[in-house]
User: Fold this.
Amino acid sequence: MKVILLGPQGAGKGTQAQRLADRVGATHISTGDIVRSEIESGSELGKKVQDYNDRGELVPDEVIVEMAKPYLDDADSWLLDGFPRNEAQAKALDGALDEIGEKLDAVVALEAPDDDLVERLSGRRQSQATGKIYHVEYDPPPDDGDDPGPFVQRDDDAEDAIRRRLEIYHEQTEPLKDFYAERGLLITVDAEQEIPKVTEDILGAVGREEDV
Ligand code: AMP
Assistant:
């Protein structure tokens, strides 16, 4: 299974990719996670990409393609989250798949209005102890010591960076919907529904009803 999850920040790509990966036994590849772990490692590459990440700007195409490639080569079955983000990256992915004689099964576009996305992202907090994601209002961190925290906001979840990330999404990533629709690969799913319903819709749409 080779599926791309497309959608704006906050639409739940990471959440859905993880749920789907568990269900169908595929690997969840998140280029955002790859970028963040490189930054945390303090490597030269991490230093090079940190500024882009913190401002909500895209890392240059050739850098992100090189970072993603080993993960794509390693797994037979994957759910790609956060890549490709523009047409140049989509073409690089096509080239990489051609080289190994593989093809995409589907591209799932998660859709939700910008105002909801800003609200979801600006309230998002991550536990430094467990990595679990919470929302200050809708899913507050436990205060019974179950998860000791601390609960921190990602640098790029500050409101200015969120707006910038959504602007880039609409300008550069959203046109990929047409790019893949022309090839008969696009499936759109309403991301405002409850999390399990979104998962169910995706599995149904990619012909994996048996995994629902
Ligand atoms: P995300 O968690 O997917 O929002 O990614 C966090 C940050 O990592 C982005 O704001 C970019 O700086 C960088 N990044 C992740 N994926 C890509 C990509 N496909 N192209 C360029 N930059 C990316």
